[in-house]
Design a protein that fits this description.
Bound molecules: zinc ion
Structural class: alpha/beta
Strand order of the largest sheet: 2-1-3-4
CATH superfamily: Creatininase
Radius of gyration: 20 Å
Order of helices and strands: HEHEHEHEHHHEE
Helix content: 25-40%
Distance between the termini: 41 Å
Shape: globular
CATH topology: Rossmann fold
């Protein structure tokens, strides 16, 4: 069945339309949209990493939620904007405009179904901008729609205890964190004997790269022959379980906080005859 890591009772498409129409508190029910990608992750990891991690972490978070907190996952987006990896086979990319339309149209459908809280949990580092643009667009269309675009990695993960300073600073793709988490979520897909480490060279313009990361647009092939940018070689399943527990616990808490959030819809300021017909109808503020 389709639910993957999500408990079946928390998987929205397993409900009928009449079930959804009868949900008691749809405006505060949290809808979770995991957003992943299908793209190369080096020779040791499958191309599905970002989709597995986004849906896996959020599925484990939903499993930890108290029963009285209403929240459901949508099926994950499994194709993303992965153009920086297109020189490697197995990368199936959408353009940014296609992904933007996809997320926006899913969000419209969530709103049309009567929900007012959408959490986008993004697992791919190449597309947070698209998620943020879709979220802002949905908010501008609907003043009572709370849309939260976040990286699934944004919560405390515990990875710092397992990694070198270099890895903390420069790992960007298929490094320790993703590898350890995949060893916990889908160990049968990981080939540790093929794991290699590669890092980008120091960026030559220090004033444009305070953290040492490349201060320019890049493609993975600029820094890596293997497709890895980081060091996955020391990752273990035990570390992955620690990371998974930490992310899922913190995300469960965040989902509950989103459920309890009460958003106040304010009237748009009126500032002149003829200007009040703009498409921004209202703007919310926190209580
Ligand atoms: Zn990834």
């Amino acid at each position: 069945m389709l639910h993957g890591y999500t408990p079946p009772a928390r998987f929205l498409p397993y409900l009928s339309w009449t079930d959804i129409a009868a949900l008691p508190d749809r405006e505060n029910t949290v809808i979770v949209l995991p957003a992943g990608a299908t793209e190369q992750h080096g020779p040791h990891l499958p191309c599905s990493v970002d989709a597995v991690i986004a849906s896996g972490v959020m599925g484990h978070a939903l499993a930890r939620l108290p029963a009285e907190v209403p929240a459901y996952a949508l099926p994950p987006i499994v194709y993303g904007k992965s153009e920086e990896h297109l020189h490697f086979p197995g990368t199936m990319t959408l353009t940014g405009t296609t992904l933007l339309a996809t997320v926006t149209e899913i969000g419209e459908s969530v709103y049309r179904s009567g929900f007012r809280k959408l959490l986008i949990a993004n697992g791919h580092g190449g597309q947070p901008q698209v998620m943020e643009m879709a979220a802002r667009e949905l908010r501008l269309r609907h003043g009572d729609f709370v849309v939260l675009p976040h990286s699934v990695w944004r919560m405390p993960s515990g990875t710092a205890a397992f990694t070198s300073e270099r890895e903390k600073k420069l790992a960007m793709h298929a490094g320790h964190g993703e590898t350890a988490l995949m060893l916990a979520l889908a160990p049968e897909t990981v080939r540790m004997e093929r794991a290699v480490a590669e890092y980008p060279p120091p960026f030559p313009i220090a004033s444009l790269s305070a953290d040492g990361r490349p201060g320019c647009a890049w493609s993975t092939m600029d820094f890596s022959a293997s497709g890895v940018i980081g060091d996955p070689t020391t990752a273990t399943p035990e570390q992955g379980q620690v990371i998974l527990d930490s992310l899922a616990t913190h995300w469960a808490r965040a989902i509950e906080e989103v459920y309890r959030l009460r958003w106040v819809v304010r009237e748009a300021p009126t500032w002149g005859r003829g200007h009040e017909q703009g498409h921004v109808q209202s703007s919310p503020s926190r209580v």
